[in-house]
Structure formats: C-alpha cells, structure tokens
Write a structure and sequence with these properties.
The chain is of the alpha+beta class and about 160 residues long. It has one domain. It is built from 2 helices and 9 strands, in the order αββββββββαβ. A hairpin with a 7-residue loop joins strand 6 and strand 7.
Length: about 160
C-alpha cells in the first residue's frame, strides 16, 4: 500500500475517531479541515487501540478533550475531530508531527459491537488537495455523496483488548 493511502487511512481511524493515516509529506493532504471545528463530541467507542487485519498498522486513539482526539498511527501523531457533512460522519485529521500540519479527510464505520473499525480516505481525484477553504470542501463533498469514486479502498481494524 502506498504512503499516501496509508496516510489518509490513519487520520480517519484516528478519530475514527475522528482518525488519520500517516504522515509528513503525504501527497493529497489538505491545507484546511472539512469544518472549521468539531461538529460533535468524540464517539467514545473509538477510544483505545486498534490493529489492522494483517497486524502491520496500529492506531491508538486518546481523548484530548470532549471534541478532539489525539491519534497515534504507527507512532505518527494526529489531532482529529468530527467534521460531519449532511448525514455523513467525516473526520478531519491533522498531522501534528509534520511542519506543514496538513489534514487528511476520512470517514469511518464502527461495527455494532464496537470491535471493528472500517476507515476510508477521501479520494484526492474527487476532492482536489488544492481546495482552499472548508466551505468549498463541504460543497464538493455534498455534490459527490453519490459518486462511487469519492472514497479510497477501505481499511479494516480490530479493537485490541
């Protein structure tokens, strides 16, 4: 899996919490979050440790405050929060380990029992990384909700005990 795809996945997972994939210098990272701030509190079920199906990627999600999570993806740190648009739960995850502090946009789904986390990064071919403001990002997301190309492949993580 290429570094860009990994970077995006972590962010979503992060927060996935509102979570993100890694990392400094990832292509496709955005200069602005989806929303200027959190749209709701952290989903408590996202907190904890997660491991990818093949065991190679690890995500730790910790609560900073009611609305912000700190996510560690294989040791890289992200600040993540919910950026809901319409009825879709997105996460804006900011790479705080890099000087650029770029964002990754993710969506996630938790299993009913809270033991499986599915993450998908927003596709930069649909929402260009050159998009300069949060309002424009939200408009493009709404316009493309039905576009099958809106998201990258799904990454699956299991909650560690």
């Amino acid at each position: 899996m290429n570094k860009t795809r990994v970077c995006r996945r972590v962010v979503l997972g992060m927060v996935a919490v509102a979570c993100s994939l890694t990392f400094s210098g990832c292509e496709g990272d955005y200069g602005v979050p989806i929303t200027s701030g959190p749209t709701r509190k952290i989903d408590q079920r996202l907190l904890g440790n997660w491991v990818s199906r093949d065991g190679t990627d690890k995500i730790k999600v910790r609560k900073l405050n009611d609305s912000i999570a700190i996510v560690s993806y294989n040791g890289d740190l992200f600040r993540a929060f919910h950026s809901d648009v319409g009825r879709t739960s997105f996460v804006s995850a900011q790479d705080i380990d890099s000087p650029d502090r770029k964002y990754v946009y993710l969506t996630y789904k938790l299993s009913d029992d809270g033991k499986r986390l599915d993450l998908r990064a927003v596709n930069i071919r649909v929402i260009p990384k050159e998009t300069k403001d949060s309002v424009s990002v939200q408009k493009l997301l709404k316009k493309n909700f039905q576009n099958a190309e809106l998201f990258e492949d799904e990454g699956q993580f299991a909650k560690e005990k």
